[in-house]
Amino acid sequence: MNLLSILLLLLLLCTCSADRAGEFCNADSEISGNSQIFANIDRLLPVLVFRTALTGFATVTYGKGQDKVHGLAQCRGDVSSKDCFSCIQDAAKHIREVCPDQADARIWFEYCFLRYDNINFIGKVDTDFSTVYFNVEEATELI
Q: Is the pLDDT of residue 68 over 50?
């Protein structure tokens, strides 16, 4: 097998998710690395990854009282469960890298979204933060 064939095979087998599309780390939700909330986030993320990979969407709550953490993850509807798992797994890893000391954090990838917070946001409308994407290219075909 020549080198080109091996590279093509590896490329086909790779299910790497796309780069981050954005993230939000709430500076007002700073926590210390030895807090119970910090530990609960570390326990919540693997459960969220596993459950999201099964159906493409999941919510998880972990902890008790004021140390409770709420998480939500979802994949686009056209994403395979394998790619969903890969994307959410990457999101869970990267969110702790870019928002290491925040109890409220969100991260977007092309295929998925992940959020956690120590305030329950599940089922509530959130208009506090938004990201606007637009296309500056000229449309050549009008419908």
A: yes
CATH number (3.40.50.720, 3.40.50.1580, 3.30.470.20, 3.30.430.20) of 30-117 reads: 3.30.430.20
Contact 118, 39 (CB under 8 A): no
| pTM to 2 decimal places | 0.77
Q: In sequence order, what are the residues at sequence separation of 6 or more whose Cβ sits closer than 8 angstroms to the Cβ of residue 79?
A: 56, 87, 111, 112
- Please say whether the dihedral angle defined by the alpha carbons of residues 24, 85, 70 and 99, taken in this order, is positive or negative: negative
Count Cβ atoms below 10 Å from residue 110 Cβ, excluding itself. 13
Per-residue confidence (pLDDT) for residue 125, from 0 to 100: 77
H or E element that contains 97: helix 81-98
The pLDDT of residue 131 is above 90:
no
pLDDT band for position 57 (cuts 50, 70, 90): very high
Question: Rounded distance, CA 87 to CA 119, Å?
Answer: 25
Quote the CA–CA distance of 43 and 88 in Å, as a whole number.
15
Q: Which residues pair with 24 in a beta bridge?
A: 106
